[in-house]
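Protein 1 of 2
SEQ + STRUCT:
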Amino acid sequence: MPASADPLDALRAVRLPPEPASGLFGIVLLAVAAGVVVVLLLPLLGRLAARLRARARSPLAVLKRTLRATTTLPAGERTLAQAAALRAYVAAVAGPGAAATSGEAWLGELDRVFATDFFTRGPGRSFGEALYAGGGAPPVPSAELEQLAAAPRRTAAAR
């Protein structure tokens, strides 16, 4: 190479591979990228689904669904179904010992769990001894029970 020649003249042009004839390369690249995104998001979606399933099985969610479902039942059956739902909720929240009580103690337990006096002084008294009386218990307004279940104010001992 002569000393007077410009060194840049000795460089050769870069030869890039030819562009693909079809858009198949772009489609394959997009599919691979989508697969990577799915693989990365799968564990997150699994955890989210598990949380949603757990929330749907929570005692409060079950109580709300059951109380909503009892509105179509006749008065006597509705009160029995509501009583069973309340007992199941108290058993899940405060323990089976709390749900095993009866009479005034049961009504007091319901008041403690829901932080109210609806069961000892209000229409909720129907879930006490009156429920098992021969004439049947007077129906409890479903709207009031659903309102209690919508915003439970449980005490620290019931959690």
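Protein 2 of 2
SEQ + STRUCT:
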Amino acid sequence: MRLSHEENLPKGDMVAGGKYEFFVVNVRSGELKGTVSWNNEVSINVNGLKPGSISQKQVFSPKGGIPDTWQWSEKGRSYQLNAYGDDRLAAVVISDYGISVIVTSTSPDSWKW
């Protein structure tokens, strides 16, 4: 996994295929507006997403050699975090300070808060 902020770093091969999903977490002090997109291919409408809540999941299809970029339309911010074989789920976290992405192989249903 490689991290960057608004860079286009190369991505290596992906070994596994399967279903990949992402969702948005709002940790801002107010409701969200706009959309959150992956590679300008699939988006989640986050208009009205309240603080402390999450969106529905959206399927995306990462591929080896193509960097994974996440963008929030409201602020024009983007973030690159490459998903690989076992990274089945991506949480796109939007705060008052910007956007970040966390990838995991586990489901939120198994997370303990």
